[in-house]
Amino acid sequence: MNVDSDPPRPLKSCGFLILRTEPELSFLLMKHVDRWDLPKGHVDAGEDELTCALRELEEETSLRADQLRLDSR
User: Fold this and answer.
1) In the Cβ-directed half-sphere of 54, how many Cα atoms lie within 13 Å?
2) pLDDT tens, 23-32?
C-alpha cells in the first residue's frame, strides 16, 4: 500500500448497547479522555461481528454474554 496515494481502508467496529431496566431505565457508556462511547471495538482479521462485539464487551467491561440477555431487535 502506498501511503501517499491509496485511500484508507474502512474499519468496521462492533459493540453492544447495554440496557438496564431496574431500578430505572439506564444504559452503559464508557468514559474516554475526550468522549463517551458504547463498549465496542474493531473487528479482528477473520472475526465475525458478533464474536467481535462479545470480545470487546468482556475486554472493556468484564461482562460476559452469559451474564446478559441478548436481544437482537
Assistant:
1) 12
2) 999 999 999 8
